[in-house]
Design brief:
This protein has strands spanning 5-10, 15-21, 40-45, 48-55, 61-68, 71-82, 88-92, 95-99, 107-114, 120-121, 125-127, 134-140, 145-150, 153-158. It has no helices and 14 strands. The chain has one domain (5-158). With 162 residues, the chain is mostly beta strands. It is globular. The strands form 4 sheets. Strands 7, 8, 9, 10 and 11 form a 5-stranded antiparallel sheet that branches. A 4-stranded antiparallel sheet has the order 3-4-5-6, with no helix packed on it. It has a 3-stranded antiparallel sheet with strand order 12-13-14, with no helix packed on it. Its main location: secreted. It is found in: Secreted.
Length: 162
């Protein structure tokens, strides 16, 4: 807790096997708009394990790193709005998406960044915060669904890719 480290903990030996440092991460100073302990998001998509966080060295904007084994293999400093002004973010199929608000209904997915091509755009996709307090959104690559936690309700969103 309150650390810039992501720890790899071995459940069999009860030891810390390794750690990765998130450069530019200041614990609890940059979180998603709703607050809480939302400064770091771990995410998985078809391309592997990712970490999303607010980076003080990037104007409190979202940064993303791809983790393979015990090392960060790719870093991305994104030109998003400040993480404190963002509802949430998730990654699917190598594309990072940002949701404008955690409480507005409807809101929009207003930023996308393709980690393979470096292209960024505003997809302007409507997103529903059904219960008005969406504190978690994550993609499940096996089921091809978004999972969300919205005011004590677990929701799923079907996705359609063009």
């Amino acid at each position: 807790e309150n650390s810039q480290f992501i720890i790899k903990y071995n459940l069999l030996t009860s030891n810390i096997d390794n750690h990765i440092t998130l450069s530019g991460y200041s614990p609890r100073s940059i979180t998603y708009m709703w607050g809480g302990y939302s400064g770091v998001d771990l995410a998985v998509d078809e391309h592997g394990l990712w970490v999303l966080w607010g980076n003080t060295g990037n104007g409190s904007r979202l940064s993303a790193s791809k983790i393979e084994g015990d090392v960060i293999v790719s870093d991305y400093n994104l030109a998003t709005e400040s993480m404190n002004s963002m509802g949430n973010a998730f990654i699917a199929c190598g594309v990072i998406y940002c949701i404008d608000s955690y409480h507005s209904n409807p809101t929009t997915i207003n930023f996308a960044y393709d980690t393979k091509t470096g292209n960024q755009w505003n997809p302007s996709i409507q997103f529903t915060n059904q219960y008005g307090y969406n504190s978690m959104v994550d993609y499940n690559p096996k089921e091809k669904l978004l999972y969300a936690w919205d005011r004590h309700n677990q929701l799923t969103y079907s996705l359609t890719w063009n």
